[in-house]
Amino acid sequence: MSNYHIKHLEEYFQVYRKSVSNPEAFWEEIAEEHFVWRKKWNKVLEWDFTKPEIKWFEGAKLNITENCLDRHLPTRGDKTAILFEPNDPKEEAQHITYHELHERVCRMANVLLDHGVKKGDRVCIYLPMIPELAVSLLACARIGAIHSVVFAGFSANALSTRINDSDCKMVICSDGSYRGAKTIDLKGIVDKALEDCSGVENVLVVKRINSDIGMKDGRDHWLQPLLDKAYADRDAELMDAEDPLFILYTSGSTGKPKGMVHTTAGYMVYTAYTFKNAFQYTENDVYWCTADIGWITGHSYIVYGPLANGATTVMFEGVPSYPDYGRFWQIIEKHKINQFYTAPTAIRALAKEKLDFVEQHDLTSLKVLGSVGEPINEEAWHWYNNNIGKKKSPIIDTWWQTETGGMMITPIPYVTPTTPTYATLPFIGIQPALMDEAGKEIKGNQVDGRLCIKFPWPSIARTIWGNHDRYRDTYFSAYKNMYFTGDGALRDAVGYYRITGRVDDVIIVSGHNLGTAPIEDSINEHPAVAESAIVGFPHEVKGNALYGYVILKEVGKTRDRNNLRKEINQQITEQIGPIAKLDKIQFVSGLPKTRSGKIMRRILRKIASKDTSNLGDTSTLLNPEVVKEIMDNSF
Ligand code: PRX
Question: Whose CA is nearest to atom 11 of ligand 1?
């Protein structure tokens, strides 16, 4: 029997040892006993980090939707698969059973096929958190189309870049979306994006807010009438283990976003196995992850991981502050949530509000609390532990990435003793290493370094869509035979890991990864701007916020500064999205540069963080005088 469900610390250590001493045998057993395959693999693992090439379960045939849907029908057909909680608490929640979800996915799959989508084609999904979003992912997977979900907070420009990068031939969107008291014109954003996307043949539109929108003849189709006509069954396409399942874009420190490609079998096995253990999910639990399916957390731990385990997974359309700051806690009470998974930025925002919002609600159903997306600070950890978990629900601080597909370092609740701000121990099968800047592994405990992973795990991304060289250069060239995460970490006296943050030019704002270069490019396009540099600085709620240093051209120097600030943020909103707006913009006459012309971000970061007691060596700068000017005028 494989160790699918770990229940004790000794068992964790024993299974961990097994998983790293013979990974192939370990994963083979898990795969064999807990999933349905149409054909078994020829080889469990083939890998070479120098190329890099990673293949899990090569030769196996399967369809992930048979694992997430069909196989549950005989035993869990009437169990709720997706529990949809709408934006407006007055609108009724929907309990979608496994039977109903299966039918909806099949109908949708038939609509996709009728509109020319074939195995291997890319479909862009730009939807709010409504059931059709999950149905669309699964319908693509059902027919072997590759989904590319774009978070519905991205701008038209960001959307068109992503559609074109992976040559999507279809877009699935809605007329609009609800976000608290506001509505957002999503279809208008799609129309604008599609002015630059000649490859898109069809747009399927979900009616959500009943707004009067323009429909382009021949291209745009209301979805519901098509679903009503479609046949309610559809055989699942036979997929190879290594066929791409989806593309999901993530920001890099430079250049355009990276379309991370995840493949079918390894992703399924790993997300299902981590879900089961990290949440200690048992059959009648109701599980809620507050992430958006536009991010990896939603892909792995709202859709695929939970459904592969036959779980009940909640999808919430709204925001934590509407109609008031008690909304999360009200939902926990209403649906008797057992596992709750959210981001530190949400915890910090809610911790600022009156405790009454929490205390009005019965939270006794909770068994496990999760955190993801950024380091959780000690204060937020304790607030979460004291007020939400009442010191009874363990907090799992789960460290992972879009690229890793699933959780990498995390406590297993009721198994691993937790320590505030520590992601604790590697998950089964994960072999972390800390490296120094010279490329040597730092062994032993009480050390810190750059976090790498030594050995492939089943859900590692296989490539960057259309740019394998960039995949190699970004993740496999810094350290020989290692996957480099881009994060720093420390290992304490007992071997627990604590993630200390990014070591590259990616800044995590409210849990969202933002590369500095694309934001700087967007600012520099403003006619009054000559040059700019972005750094992060600590922010009470967002974790980090963005600080921009901007050099103006002559034409800009006579302009009103506050108007310019507004225009710069407007430009960023249009080109990237409101999540990338700057909190502070300082106009400067120059930026500190090395003799080779590189901006010394370290100095800018210190000034933005008001940590100027030791700026380090500035003597090598081309223009040391500018540092004083920037300091004197900083916010
Ligand atoms: O810096 C780490 C941070 O988020 C990055 C990955 O972001 P993304 O690909 O958007 O995926 C987020 C959801 C999995 C990581 O490189 N990060 C994520 N989780 C944690 C974290 N930092 C500290 N603690 C965490 N638990």
Answer: 401
| SS3 call for 231 | coil
First to last CA, the chain: 61
Any atom of ligand 1 within 6 Å of the Cβ of 372: yes
Q: What digits encode the pLDDT tens for the residues 501-535?
A: 999 889 999 999 998 988 999 999 999 999 999 99
What is the model's pTM?
0.95
Tell me, in angstroms, the distance from the centre of ligand 1 to residue 567's CA: 31
Q: Give the mutation target among 499, 505, 579 for probing the ligand 1 site: most ligand atoms within 8 A of CB.
A: 499
Q: pLDDT by residue (tens digit) across 101-141?
A: 999 999 999 999 999 999 999 999 999 999 999 999 999 99
The domain defined by 9-319+398-464 carries CATH number 1.10.3720.10: no
> Among the CATH numbers 3.40.50.2000, 3.40.190.10, 3.30.540.10, 3.30.300.30, which is that of 506-632?
3.30.300.30
Sign of CA dihedral 224, 225, 228, 229: negative
73 Cα to the center of ligand 1, angstroms: 35
